[in-house]
Recover the amino acids of this structure.
């Protein structure tokens, strides 16, 4: 999920149709239901993974998940794609005249500026590409930022291992090595490269990337800083250790970088072995004091996930993922510019707090506190006014091909006026001060046919998100002890009973004339969850929306309305009429109810006028017609509300259940849409769930239920099976190994620790467990980490020289160390300082078993079963 | 006089403390903004709040701290966290202690993370002053001059024209004037910069950039001074002592410059002083629309984003300036008109 980002543009809210039907197992809430039970397929059971499935199979799974989400309203109420008309100054010569989805016009890399900008009075910037931002983020440190603005700025100056470029005939794009020497990573088994031409379907855990390092690599750091201690890094060669340091710096728990925590918590294809432990260990001051950050790195990711080396082909890093990846996803998951190299001396000098930002007294600016590894570098930063980037003429791609990156710099105006005037940027463009700008709605009619205007498809579908919780579900999720957010009683949302009525929600969906609504704004109406940018087969560039799986997914819900942009007034009125009957029966609408209401939340006050009023009119018209037909006087009132700061629509409403409908969307991970579906899970495991009301952990046996591979699934479990594999016992997820401490006794003299533990696996044939070691460690600042092996030749390893481990016994393991069935008991006796440290703690601070997990012969990584903080008893 | 001045300054300090205390408590009465997202991100947020002194972190549940914000068992450390809002009084004393003993106002959490709050204000203040000082330099002579002219030409066409324009410009909200000026002089004719230029812009552009904000800030002041001066001067001109002066042989010009203006200036000069002090405050709308990186928007942004340290530093600065300037205003009456004695005994 590291590529998700909150869209800064107008996002749409989604009305989540609750798949009504089942009774929640949790908390006694009835919750929303999807209808009577009709499906008879057996619930998914056993150890199952679709991680290594083909693109076609994964597309089918994605279609099943999307279909369920659409049928149950989890995808929100789609409105239109966020694309629109963009005007370019005639001096901008694009790299390609045709907009390429997921890539654009390649203006910076392949384009150029033909002429000067009339409104630019500073000759220095005449040949810079002029764009704009609405505010000054005061930092370019994307490692610690959640939004997309800083990421865009950061992307100007940093590169990833791999990037994209125009193909030779300029009709599409292709991947190539940027910081990597080769255009693809190589699969590695047993420390050796398996092949340098892996097929598209080969799945491997470990992938090797050869790095551009040293003088031969041709990459040097750039900085415009004039401070001596920073300028000394200018033109310094990039070394292999710098690549590793980037991960250490990013994921160091003490730095508390948001993106570092996010990367460390990845569980699927984009997760890298050992980073979670590294992030975790470095969050512990005592461990850092004992082992140092580098020591903890060697214990964790440096040992198993990110291992640097060198051979005849040069310096390399072997990246081991948590689950197998094919060549494309190995490359894609390592493509982020967040992983750009940075020297340890620099990160030590700047520190985490000031990295890419100002220091406390502003004597150092972002220009001084970041190094660039890319075609441009940060040149200047003027608070609330201007950020500029200059071309790095020493960049190796420019040296190899002078026709690349010909634009001399990037000139980013900070237009604070946009806060109060949404035409501010457009007026600047017309005054000749910007090179491109989106056409505002008010100017669309006048400028849509202007020769400078180009229609650009969007990368996200704007939606109205839906809170379809009933009171009980809302209490569970957002109440005083909510699982997602905790709300004081005085701030409880007024949960409307109609918002959890399936027919009412369907009435909302069908009531909006999207084609008319979108065409007025120069956009394209959409009933799709994804934009066309999302590719189900990224290697062949197949957009998911063009697949049969997608068409089938939306057919059930949208039916013939697909051709009318999801609009059918008669159908909407019919659904509202059914809703009214339900609500009358339940007492939510009484004979004297004159009005019911719903609240929509918007990012900007201006959106109320530009969109809210028209949408309200559609919805009110449909409902009130239905009410009149039903012979009641009740009318629906749609209240439009706006937040003060745009992002509050997410943080104070959509993510905290304080809304009925809310405008907003997230986008990201366009090349792995199946992984992106995590944002629809009702447990908010991604942290980005925006639609609420349906419990996605349910096994839904209604007609909407999710059936795949002949089995009934919950949304959560099918997603996890496809993302990282899952073990299910009659529909409930179970651990692949459980860890139980049978004995942890310290002898009366305090010198010997007598241990016995039992590890137990579920009995599924497709599951293989290979036990590696038992490990333990105290909370002491002294390095005392110890591993115990099922190997008479080398029964243990410990950081402390005085540690002795005797009587080691692993029962019930095969000769290959696998636990084929049942349980394994591990016992041993330990002496030495480690025992003293544990005795002081009265517990074993870190205690667990490392093992390799396989499902259906697919290696799913090194996993730990733990019993941290297990108490020890001291014998009298 | 000295004793009076000291008394007033001390009173201003006491008032400042009261205002800041009230502001602190009122701001802290706003609901605590709970984080959302993944647990690791939530934990990072809470630990940061702990570091800022806004939240308390315990390993066991506490009853005396009210609502539990969040509880979490950190799998990384095995430590259980129970987070509570730190009592506002404790927060206040910690903040006040840092300010009084170390003159540390804290660092920004949103506007410019990690940067000292006073540095943020200090960086923006010069720009605001530079823009506003031109307005004062132009509006004072222009306003007073027009007021004198209108008073001397009372009930003539000149007076009517001036009064009409004064009424129009004093009635039109400033954001309308700004928008109009920008549309006409910047976007339509292209004569002036459309936005406040960067520090690296050519000198000519930087000079031109003062015109729109100066005009915008001056119109209202010119009208105010003009109306005030006209009213005061008209009243003085009809006084008996001026008639006496004329009968003693002084020319009209002599009576106006030597007697009328001096008396009319008694209420006008303090308002000029007030205007000079006011230039430190900036204009939120002007700075926003014209992209001036000044202090005008700082307070609102800090309040909206709950950037408490910047908010309190901003509030402290302006409260202190406002109150001390009040003292100077009072004292200035004595210098302008010797008949007025501040703090003098009867």
């Amino acid at each position: 999920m590291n590529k998700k980002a909150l869209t800064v543009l107008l996002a749409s809210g989604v009305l989540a149709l609750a798949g009504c039907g089942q009774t929640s197992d949790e908390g006694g809430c009835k919750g929303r239901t999807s209808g009577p039970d009709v499906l008879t397929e057996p619930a998914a059971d056993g150890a199952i993974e679709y991680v290594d499935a083909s693109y076609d199979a994964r597309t089918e799974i994605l279609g099943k998940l999307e279909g369920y989400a659409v049928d149950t309203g989890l995808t929100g109420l789609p409105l239109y794609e966020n694309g629109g008309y963009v005007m370019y100054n005639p001096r901008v010569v694009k790299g390609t005249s045709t907009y390429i989805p997921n890539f654009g016009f390649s203006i910076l890399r392949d384009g150029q500026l033909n002429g000067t900008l009339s409104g630019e009075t500073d000759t220095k910037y005449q040949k810079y590409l002029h764009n704009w931002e609405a505010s000054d983020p005061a930092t370019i440190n994307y490692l610690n930022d959640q939004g997309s603005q800083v990421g865009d700025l950061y992307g100007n100056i940093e590169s990833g291992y791999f990037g994209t470029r125009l193909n030779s005939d300029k009709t599409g794009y292709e991947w190539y090595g940027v910081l990597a020497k080769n255009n693809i990573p190589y699969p590695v088994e047993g420390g050796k490269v398996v092949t340098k031409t892996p097929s598209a379907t080969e799945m491997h855990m470990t992938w090797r990337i050869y790095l551009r390092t040293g003088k031969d690599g041709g990459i040097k750091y750039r900085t415009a800083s004039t401070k001596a201690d920073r300028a000394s890094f200018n033109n310094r060669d990039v070394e292999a250790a710098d690549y590793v340091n980037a991960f250490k710096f990013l994921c160091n728990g003490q730095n508390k970088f948001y993106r570092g925590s996010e990367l460390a918590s990845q569980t699927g294809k984009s997760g890298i072995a050992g980073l979670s432990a590294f992030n975790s260990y470095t969050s512990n001051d005592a461990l850092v004091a004992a082992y140092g950050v580098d020591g903890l790195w060697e214990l964790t990711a440096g040992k198993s996930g990110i291992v640097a080396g060198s051979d005849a082909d040069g310096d390399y890093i072997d990246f081991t993922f948590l689950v197998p990846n094919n060549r494309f996803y190995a490359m894609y998951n390592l493509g982020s510019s967040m992983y750009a190299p940075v020297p340890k001396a620099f990160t030590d000098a700047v520190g985490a707090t000031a990295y890419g930002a100002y220091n406390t007294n502003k004597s150092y600016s972002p220009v001084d506190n970041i190094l660039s590894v890319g075609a441009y570098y940060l040149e200047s930063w003027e608070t609330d006014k201007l950020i500029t980037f200059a071309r790095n003429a020493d960049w190796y791609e420019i040296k190899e091909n002078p026709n690349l990156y010909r634009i001399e710099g990037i000139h980013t105006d900070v237009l604070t006026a946009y806060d109060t005037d949404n035409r501010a940027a457009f007026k600047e463009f017309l005054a000749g001060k910007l090179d491109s700008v989106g056409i505002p709605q008010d100017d669309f009619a006048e400028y849509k046919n202007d020769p400078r205007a180009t229609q650009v498809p969007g990368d996200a579908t704007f939606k109205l998100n839906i809170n379809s919780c009933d009171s009980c579900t809302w209490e569970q999720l957002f109440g005083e002890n909510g699982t997602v957010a905790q709300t004081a009683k005085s701030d409880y949302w007024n949960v409307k009973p109609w918002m959890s009525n399936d027919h009412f929600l369907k009435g909302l969906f069908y009531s909006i004339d999207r084609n008319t609504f979108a065409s007025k704004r120069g956009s394209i109406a959409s009933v799709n969850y994804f934009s066309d940018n999302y590719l189900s087969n990224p290697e062949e560039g197949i957009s998911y929306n063009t697949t049969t799986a997608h068409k089938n997914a939306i057919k059930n819900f949208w039916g013939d309305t697909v051709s009318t942009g999801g609009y059918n007034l008669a159908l909407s009125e019919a659904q509202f009429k059914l809703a009214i009957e339900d609500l009358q029966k339940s007492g939510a609408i009484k004979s004297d109810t004159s009005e019911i209401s719903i609240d929509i939340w918007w990012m900007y006050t201006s959106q109320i006028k530009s969109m809210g009023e028209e949408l309200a009119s559609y919805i009110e018209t449909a409902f009130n017609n239905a009410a009149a037909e039903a012979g009641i006087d009740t009318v629906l009132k749609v209240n439009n509300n706006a937040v003060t700061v745009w992002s509050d629509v997410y943080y104070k409403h959509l993510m905290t259940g304080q809304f009925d409908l809310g405008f907003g969307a997230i986008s990201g991970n366009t090349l792995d849409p199946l992984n992106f579906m995590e944002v629809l899970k009702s447990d908010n495991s991604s942290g980005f769930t925006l639609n609420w009301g349906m419990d996605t952990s349910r096994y839904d046996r209604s007609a909407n239920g999710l059936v795949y591979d002949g089995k009934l699934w919950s949304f959560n479990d099918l997603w996890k099976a496809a993302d990282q594999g899952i073990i299910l016992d009659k529909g409930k997820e179970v651990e692949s190994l459980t860890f139980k401490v049978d004995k942890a006794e310290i002898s009366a003299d305090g010198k010997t620790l007598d241990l016995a533990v039992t590890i137990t696996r579920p009995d599924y044939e497709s599951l293989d467990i290979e036990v590696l070691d038992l490990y333990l460690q105290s909370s002491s600042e002294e390095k005392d980490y110890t591993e115990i092996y099922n190997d008479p030749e080398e029964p243990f390893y410990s950081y402390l020289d005085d540690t002795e481990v005797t009587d080691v016994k692993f029962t019930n393991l095969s000769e290959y160390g696998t636990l084929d069935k049942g349980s394994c008991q591990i016992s041993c006796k330990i002496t030495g300082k480690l025992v003293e440290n544990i005795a002081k703690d009265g517990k074993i601070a870190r205690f667990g078993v490392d093992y390799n997990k396989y499902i259906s012969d697919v290696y799913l990584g090194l996993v730990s079963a733990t019993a941290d903080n297990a108490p020890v008893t001291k014998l009298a | 006089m000295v004793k009076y001045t000291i008394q007033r300054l001390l009173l201003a300090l006491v008032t400042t403390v009261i205002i800041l205390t009230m502001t602190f408590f009122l701001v802290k009465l706003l609901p605590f903004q709970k984080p959302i997202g993944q647990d690791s991100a939530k934990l990072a947020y809470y630990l940061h709040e702990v570091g800022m002194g806004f939240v308390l972190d315990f390993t066991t549940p506490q009853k005396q701290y009210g609502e539990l914000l969040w509880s979490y068992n950190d799998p990384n450390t095995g430590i259980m966290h129970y987070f509570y809002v730190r009592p506002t009084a404790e927060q206040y004393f910690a903040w006040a202690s840092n300010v009084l003993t170390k003159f540390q106002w804290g660092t920004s959490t949103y506007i410019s993370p990690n940067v000292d709050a006073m540095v943020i204000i200090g960086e923006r203040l010069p720009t605001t002053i530079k823009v506003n000082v031109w307005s004062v330099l132009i509006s004072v002579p222009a306003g007073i001059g027009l007021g004198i002219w209108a008073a001397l030409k009372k009930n003539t066409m000149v007076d009517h024209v001036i009064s009409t324009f004064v009424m129009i410009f004093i009635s039109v909200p400033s954001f309308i004037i700004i928008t109009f000026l920008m549309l006409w002089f910047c976007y339509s004719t292209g004569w002036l910069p459309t936005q406040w230029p960067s520090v690296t812009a050519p000198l000519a552009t930087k000079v031109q950039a003062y015109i729109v904000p100066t005009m915008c800030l001056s119109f209202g002041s010119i009208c105010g001074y003009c109306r005030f001066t006209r009213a005061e001067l008209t009243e003085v001109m009809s006084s008996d002592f001026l008639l006496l002066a004329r009968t003693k042989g002084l020319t009209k010009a002599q009576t106006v410059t030597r007697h009328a203006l001096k008396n009319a200036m008694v209420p006008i000069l303090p308002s000029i002083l007030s205007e000079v002090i006011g230039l430190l405050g900036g204009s939120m709308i002007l700075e926003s629309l014209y992209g001036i990186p000044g202090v005008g928007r700082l307070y609102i942004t800090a309040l909206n984003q709950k950037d408490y340290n910047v908010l309190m530093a901003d509030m402290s600065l302006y409260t202190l300036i406002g109150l001390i300037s009040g003292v100077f205003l009072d004292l200035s009456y004595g210098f302008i008109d010797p008949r007025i004695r501040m703090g003098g005994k009867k």
